Each structure stands twice: as C-alpha cells, then as structure tokens.
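Running this now, will post back.
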Amino acid sequence: MLTWAGNANKDVNPRWGDHWNLHSVWDEGLIDAYMNLRHLNEDSYVTEVLKPLVQTPGDLAQLQGGDLEAWMKESYSIAIKNAYNLPPFDSTYQGYILQPTYFEMNRDVVNKQLLVGGVRLAAFLNKTAAH
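Update: finished.
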C-alpha cells in the first residue's frame, strides 16, 4: 500500500533549501510527493493528469466555459475548502504540521487544478491570439 508518510513532516523544501510555506506546498510539494509516491517522472505525471480529458474529451468545452472572474472565484473557493483546511497551529513547532492525510485529501484536487489551469490557459491564449 502506498503512503504519504515519507513525504510528510519535512521542514525544508529540497529544491530550494528553504522552509516550506503553504504556497510552495501547493506549487510543488504535493506534486513532488505524489510523483515520488507513484514513481513517476514528469512525462508520466503529465500523462496521468491529462487522462481524464483523454477519456472524456467532451469535458474540454465545459472546462473552458466561463470567464476569468468565474475561474478566479472557483479557484478561491477551492483554496478555502482545501488548501486552508489546515491542522491546528503547533506552538512547539511554530507552524502547521501537515500530516499524510493532508496530502492524500488534496492529491486529486491538485491534479485536477493543473488540468483545468492548462485547459483554461490554452482557451485564453487562443481567444487572445484570435483578436
């Protein structure tokens, strides 16, 4: 069985050598942990993230629907519900200790948001370039 334990409770972001913050956890920590857990390289990770779109290409138009304001509101809502759903502040540690459950609960959210972000960026660029 796969676990997140080896990826949790690391104080320092190995890529930058600095302490993690919530932004870096979501920008790369969750992704790196998932890739390590599943033994994926970047290409196989991208393939996995795109899999839902390949399996149901009709979703492309739905994902591209809406406008920038709607997309921002949706992202904000996801952040409040998921990213900021933190454990209690640990006064001994002077921060939040993200347990494996935090990684597990947010794995699919990160993968979907990467897919949605890429699809929406492509739609925005296509629309902008068409003018």
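The CA atoms of residues 51 and 106 lie 18 Å apart. More later if anyone needs it.
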